[in-house]
Specification:
By secondary structure, the chain is of the alpha+beta class. The chain has two domains: 85 residues; 130 residues, no CATH class. 53% of the residues lie in helices and 12% in strands. It has a six-stranded antiparallel sheet. A hairpin with a 4-residue loop joins strand 1 and strand 2. The protein is elongated. The termini are far apart.
């Protein structure tokens, strides 16, 4: 099968080169013949003979071109008889790789989303019980360990058997209550999924939702600034009644 493809590719290259050469030759000969015919109207017999010689050579060139076109048709027919119209094993392998990369990417997305949702639920349960958001993973260890797919360390939680992990998000001020839109956890490292060109990073907000930000550079400061607790966006204390 590979030898057939190699032969087809070689034949196409040869036919293409010959066709290009013949087209150039015919063009030059037609230009020369036109000039000679104009001179032959009042020229001596040698000039007329030269014009006839060029005409004969052009006829041979056109016959050669017809033969080359016939050969190209046969090569095309042979190529069409091969699987995928003569497509190489490289093309097939690339398609298989793309499918495999898509499956890997989907698996990673699902794993990250599942970990994030579990963290969000654990934090919400802790808040309902204690009236405060958790500050360390020790605070929500009891909830975290309910999912056997999730591992636990002092500074992160992670998917058992893979590298997807989350950490607490650092704020400029203490975040005790689930203020809307604030980040509680983030994926430890930005990642670029197999076969994709953009970087992504998952975040768990205080309402338990999982959000995924994407950017071409891997710098997510633009997203994090909008969801960081700062002195400027601190909730205003309630005003005393007049």
């Amino acid at each position: 099968m590979n030898s057939g493809r190699i032969f087809t590719a070689f034949a196409l290259a040869v036919v293409g080169a010959l066709l290009s050469y013949q087209f150039r030759q015919i063009h030059l000969l037609e230009a020369e013949l036109t000039g000679l015919r104009r001179k032959a109207v009042s020229a001596s017999p040698p000039v007329a003979v030269a014009a006839q010689s060029v005409s004969t050579e052009m006829s041979r060139s056109k016959e050669d071109l017809a033969e080359l076109l016939r050969l190209r048709g046969e090569v095309t027919k042979l190529r069409n008889q091969l699987p995928d119209g003569g497509g190489s094993d490289v093309v097939r392998r690339r398609r298989e790789l793309a499918v495999d990369q898509q499956a890997q990417s989907e698996k990673i997305r699902t794993t990250v989303h599942d970990i994030g949702k579990h963290l969000g639920r654990s934090a919400q349960q802790y808040f309902l019980t204690n009236g405060l958001l958790p500050k360390t993973f020790d605070d929500i260890f009891t909830e975290i360990r309910k999912d056997p797919r999730i591992g636990f360390s002092e500074k992160s939680v992670f998917a058992v058997g893979s590298g997807e992990s989350f950490e607490f998000f650092p704020h400029e001020r203490t975040l005790s209550n689930p203020e809307p839109g604030m980040i509680l956890f983030r994926e430890q490292w930005p990642r670029r999924l197999p076969g994709e060109t953009v970087w992504v990073r998952a975040y768990v907000l205080t309402d338990g939702s999982v959000q995924t930000a994407a950017c071409p550079t891997g710098d997510f400061s633009f997203y994090e600034r909008e969801h960081t607790a700062t002195a400027a966006n601190a909730p205003k204390p309630p005003q005393p009644a007049p």
